[in-house]
């Protein structure tokens, strides 16, 4: 193994079974299936435990997919099997909603386009994440025919096994970091995201890792502006079950914050990060109400709606939007927000963002951009990021080493320290680093993201003076 891939050997030796050769998923033939990477890796590692994909393994995977993860055009055949009294076992993203009016629980089974199935109460109690946006797992389904004209037939979920890590030794993950150089560790993280680290420069790798900051650090609000094809949404769709991606269209206050009718909290209370893809097409139902609540949440991390008490959450907000570039691959307009909806162009909203990610500095995704080496399994890595959010110690490092100049603005300082803390968790989870390391790899990248925000504010509103944020190296 050459020096460029030294991180792979260390990862295999030090982390063992929580690592996977990312090439295996490509070799297994999931190209036509629209399923998250963590699901594909889960299937592959169970059918190729020795890390070898041959035709026999491919046939086993095809059989598994056809039997337990069929395409939607099989839904009527599956329903017919259930009607005949047979049980059906599916791998799907099951979710549950509560119908208070009917004193009922309704199970959603996407593969069957079913939204009114039944579920055993004990399963909801055992797996509460079913109530929080859904869980990928293996479910055993049966059919209960109608008993009379007032009791319609219904599909029931009788057994469920979630597709997630049974245990997570976060201390071990952090301790093992000390055996890697910074370059090796960064390569491992990039590979774990699904990218080939050799296809990106060091600066581009850091931009890729910036996409993880809202997953690893509480209440980070970012906007990434980039042309199509740079993989803006890839990580949030494939890496973590704690991220929820909304692709354009209209968003309601009930879905995002709180449903006054069902008395259920919305997405911000159930996910680590809510991602708005295609933000240039985003619209809100009743914008007069939702924009005010939204801005309040970005500032305080809490919201109130419909007379309810304030609800506090730690979810971050990420906006992904396309931006036109010139022949030099720079934004065509000085106003980067020109193509976004008017409510996203308010300076009061932009000021609440912690950073603008210049996604135009990343190349378009090509075949050589895809990971081909060892990386953490996506479900394991997603759980690591989730649990690092609440791990203590990193904020103290950031506060100690973050000596800013050029600004005394509270929002600037909060944004920079929060993002720098996220970088620290990603690059130095063991907590061992010098001030120079923190300044170079955590603080200055965070300053750059916030500087973009300040530049846009000064361009759009005379109330915001132009300023140059910097830091003391010593």
Structural write-up:
This protein has 18 helices and 20 strands. Among the domains are: about 90 residues, OB fold (Dihydrolipoamide Acetyltransferase, E2P), CATH 2.40.50; about 150 residues, Rossmann fold (3-Layer(aba) Sandwich), CATH 3.40.50. The chain is of the alpha/beta class. The chain is globular. It starts with 5 loop residues before the first helix and ends with a strand. The model has no long low-confidence stretch (mean pLDDT about 90). The relative contact order is 0.12. The chain has a 5-stranded mixed beta barrel with strand order 2-3-4-6-5.
- Tell me, briefly, the overall form: globular
Strand residue percentage: 15-25%
Gyration radius (Cα, Å) is 23 Å
What structural class do you assign from the helix and strand content? alpha/beta
Question: What separation lies between the terminal Cα atoms?
Answer: 39 Å
Number of strands: 20
Strand order of the largest sheet: 2-3-4-6-5
Percent of residues in helices comes to: 25-40%
CATH domain class name of the domain at 215-362: Alpha Beta
The low-confidence runs, each spanning 5 or more residues with pLDDT under 50, are: none
- What CATH calls the topology of the domain at 215-362 is Rossmann fold
The appropriate CATH architecture of the domain at 215-362 is 3-Layer(aba) Sandwich
How can the largest sheet be summarized? 5 strands, mixed, barrel
| Count of helical regions | 18
Q: What does the average pLDDT come to?
A: 90
Q: CATH homologous superfamily of the domain at 215-362, by name?
A: P-loop containing nucleotide triphosphate hydrolases
